[in-house]
UniProtKB/TrEMBL annotation:
InterPro entries listed in its UniProt record: MFS (IPR011701), MFS_dom (IPR020846), MFS_trans_sf (IPR036259), MFS_Transporters (IPR050171)
Chain segments annotated as coiled-coil in the UniProt record: none
UniProt key word Ligase: no
UniProt topology in membrane: Multi-pass membrane protein
Transmembrane segments: 21-43, 49-67, 88-106, 112-131, 152-177, 183-202, 226-247, 259-280, 292-310, 322-343, 355-376, 388-405
Protein name as it appears in the record: MFS transporter
Organism: Streptomyces bullii
Length: 409
């Protein structure tokens, strides 16, 4: 079975009417990202300068955070299929609060690693639960004539980016106090999320049946088309993760500090907030799923190539930020194409009743790729190679991933 991105009729560009549950889940994504991005963009500098970690260790810790989150999504997704989304979301919020508080007080490598693992596992619980239910509700919305499911998933992405836009700006202000205060404020955001969801999230969602956990993983591992999608999505996520590893390094080289980093994150989020829905509608009318993802991956590769081309010139100051801004713009445009389409593809590749498992597995496989790739990237950036080489290597990753995209029947 395949997905059609467009419904075959011209969709109204106006307001999208959603059910109360979909509105709650989309606002949930916004709140999650506000709390998360208050802290994450500034973690690399904290680990390197305050804790004193080497570059390869910073890359490893950042990759470990992504793997403990993305890599364990399959666990959270299976738990959501088995027990429903409410208990899984609430448990994840509790763990995220504890993880941020712990990170704020962590002073050694091992305590930082423990806090980062807890922060990641918290998201491994609540994110696949929310994402799988949004995907299921988007399919129902499409089947009842609301329009293409990718529009709902694009709106979900926009909500997340609004949070990603506000979070770094708030975090930059809080860093004027210290990193611990930033972590505690992030924890406070999740306290509010926990209280709101304990009150508003339904105990039972109509049409969502609980599924036995046994046997699903074996069939998933034999689904070659789904695994191919996972690998291509993992290459995208590894490239996107360079916002937190390669980009801070480039901004510091160009300006001597990371002050401009928050504004580059804001630029990325602003692009998604303003352009995601029009881009999704335009692409849905013209490109099939595979071509849309391929175009997104090639745009991301072009972003790395822009920095590689400018790097030998050694520009600094404002001029030195121009290639970094170009990288952010192209990476964000690629994200607009890749992320909603990948999520929209999963329901048609998943077994009946196991959408949570498959949604989680999409992130788990990509998380493993990021874990390995981030350590390699940290080493690559510290290896003293000619300045363009690390960025050219990074450009090759999403470009090569185009060949991994599953062929549609």
């Amino acid at each position: 079975m395949t997905i059609t991105v467009s419904t075959g009729r011209r969709e109204a560009p106006g307001r999208i009417r959603l059910s109360p549950l979909l509105r709650l889940l989309i606002l949930t994504q916004l709140a999650f990202n506000v709390g998360f991005f208050v802290v994450l963009p500034f973690l690399s500098e904290h680990l390197g300068q305050t804790i004193g970690m080497a570059g390869w260790m910073v890359g490893f810790v950042l990759g470990l955070r992504t793997f403990s989150q993305q890599g364990l999504f399959v666990v959270g997704g299976a738990l959501a299929d088995r027990y429903g989304i409410r208990p899984v979301v609430l448990a994840g919020c509790v763990l995220r609060i504890a993880g941020f508080v712990w990170l704020g007080y962590a002073q050694s490598t091992w305590t930082v690693i423990g806090a980062v693992l807890l922060i990641g596992f918290a998201a491994a619980l609540f994110s696949p639960a929310v994402e799988s239910e949004v995907a299921r509700q988007a399919v129902l919305w499409e089947e009842t004539g609301g329009g293409s499911r990718t529009r709902v998933l694009a709106l979900f992405t926009v909500a997340g980016q609004v949070g990603a836009f506000l979070g770094p700006l708030l975090g930059a202000l809080l860093l004027a106090v210290d990193f611990r205060t930033t972590c505690l404020v992030g924890a406070g955001v999740f306290v509010l999320v926990l209280a709101g969801h304990a009150r508003l999230l339904p105990q039972r969602i109509p049409g969502r049946a609980r599924t036995r956990a046994k046997g699903g993983l074996r069939l998933l591992l034999r689904n070659r088309r789904f695994l191919a999608l996972c690998c291509a999505y993992g290459a995208y996520l590894l490239a996107y993760n360079q916002l937190y590893l390669a980009l801070p390094d480039e901004v510091t080289r160009a300006t001597g500090s990371q002050a401009a980093l928050a504004w580059l994150f804001a630029l990325s989020s602003l692009l998604v907030v303003t352009a995601q829905l029009p881009v999704t509608r335009w692409v849905g009318e013209r490109l099939a799923l595979r071509r849309s993802m391929a175009a997104g991956l090639l745009l991301i590769a072009a972003g790395f190539a822009v920095v590689a081309a400018a790097r030998p010139a050694g520009w600094t100051g404002t001029a030195g930020l121009v290639p970094a801004a170009g990288f952010v713009v192209l990476l964000t445009l690629g994200q607009m194409l890749v992320a909603p389409v990948a999520r929209a593809w999963v329901p048609d590749l998943a077994e009946e009743g196991r959408l949570g498992l498959y949604t989680g597995a999409l992130s788990s496989v990509s998380g493993l790729i990021v874990l390995v790739g981030s350590s390699a990237t940290g080493t690559l950036l510290d290896a003293g190679l000619p300045p363009a080489v690390p960025w050219l290597v990074l450009a090759a990753v999403p470009a090569a991933a185009v060949a991994l995209l599953p062929r549609r029947d």
